[in-house]
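Listing S7. Sequence submitted for prediction.
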Amino acid sequence: MDGRDSHDGLGQMTGTMLRDYLSADDGAARAVYEASFPPSLRAPWSDLVHHRLDERFVVLVEGDAAAAADATTVGIALIRRLGDTGMAFVRYLAVDPTRRDRGLGSQLVAHLREALRADGIGVLLLDVEKPVGAHAEEDRRRIAFYERCGLTLLDVPDYAPPEHGETGEIVPLLLMGEVLDDAAPLTGARLDEAVRAVLLHRYGVQT
């Protein structure tokens, strides 16, 4: 997504707006981030705030004046463009845990889809924790949420990104995606391209 230094609203729905992160968002945005991801899945906060040029850090805000800097920050997302593939990867997406079950997560995904399409992105990708172990039920709910939002689990049986959180722990992950353009579905050659793009441009793994 372009416009790294722009702080215009990216999209608006009833009561909410997606816009680029502002320094005024720091406390609330960081609280959402740290409450939503365990250390094994978290990058240092500075990586989000001082993100790469091929990334965009956005916040979901709500209120009567959602575009204002003093609006309430209720969600975050960090998106990375995957080279020149026309694909983008959602590194982090979360809403305030105290405000869940209000449709904010669905609104955040819908805002992102709209913004990515406007920026010429044809495929939206993200990974989720594989439902195993003590948190399996929570992981299944997360997958079901993304499926309700229009994403699908992709058939990549050997998907195994390297460790990437603060702890260096390798977390079993699954890849999900959604086609945003009118081109080929995420199967066959296009799926292979998507997996290569994620491994290279998100995790630095050459295949």
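Caption to Listing S7: primary sequence and predicted structure tokens for the chain studied. The chain has one domain: 9-202. Confidence is low (pLDDT under 50) at residues 1-9.
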